[in-house]
Amino acid sequence: MKFWLRTCITGTTRSVLPKFMRESPSGLITLFELKSMLQMQGMTEEASGYVDQVFYTFDMDGDGYIDFVEYIAAVSLLLKGEINQKLKWYFKLFDQDGNGKIDRDEMETIFKAIQDITWSYDIPPDDIVTLIYERIDVNNEGELTLEEFITGAKEHPDIMEMLTKMMDLTHVLEIIVNGQKKKE
């Protein structure tokens, strides 16, 4: 398993730069390299799209690469970030078109991808999305702003717990790296 994935999974960040550079001599990771490291063969289109979206949220400057600074910032956020920071990251992950709002389809796509990867939840993604929108879409617009998302998640401990468990990237990456696929 590649060093940077192991770091993300285990939370160990000591002496990171030399090891990162040894495994990524250019100091940059492309989406293709990420998918190669994760051995994405056999994964569903949704799971592959999820990895794309994770990559794009880590690629903070949008240059098509995850560099060392972006990597450390992402790992630090996922392992030690405050809840507001994590909720902002979740929001960015859900907001696939980058318009500053999450629509039901965007959220359902991410939850479906997570289920395709982890096979850990019996509740259908559309039921999860319906529950979330019934509770936190205060304007009933079918879209969530960042403010609605953060406020709603904090006001509903059950939703916060569900988001935290489902959006645990270290768990999802561990399953991908260990090669677990969706059960038939």
Describe this entry's structure for a reader.
Keywords: Calcium, Lipoprotein, Metal-binding, Myristate, Repeat. Pfam families: EF-hand_7, EF-hand_8. Helix 9 packs across helix 10. The chain is built from eleven helices and four strands; from the N terminus they run H-H-E-H-H-E-H-H-E-H-H-E-H-H-H. It is mainly alpha-helical and 184 residues long. Mean pLDDT is 80; it is low at 180-184. The strands form two sheets. It has a two-stranded antiparallel sheet with strand order 1-2.
SSE layout and pairings?
Blueprint: H1 3-10, H2 16-23, E1 28-29, H3 31-37, H4 45-58, E2 66-67, H5 68-80, H6 83-94, E3 101-103, H7 104-118, H8 125-136, E4 143-145, H9 146-155, H10 157-166, H11 169-177
Antiparallel strand pairs: 1-2, 3-4
Domain EF-hand: 46-81, 82-117
Keywords: Calcium, Lipoprotein, Metal-binding, Myristate, Repeat
GO molecular function: calcium ion binding; calcium sensitive guanylate cyclase activator activity
Q: Give the percentage of residues in beta strands.
A: 5-15%
Largest sheet: 2 strands, antiparallel
Mean pLDDT: 80
* CATH topology-level name: Recoverin, domain 1
Regions with pLDDT < 50 over 5+ consecutive residues?
180-184
- Indicate the CATH class: Mainly Alpha
> What are the secondary-structure elements, in order, as H or E?
HHEHHEHHEHHEHHH
CATH architecture: Orthogonal Bundle
What labels would you give this structure?
single chain; 184 residues; mainly alpha; Recoverin, domain 1; two-stranded antiparallel ribbon; two-stranded antiparallel sheet; 11 helices; disordered C terminus; calcium ion binding; repeat; calcium sensitive guanylate cyclase activator activity; EF-hand-dom_pair; Guanylyl cyclase-activating protein 3-like
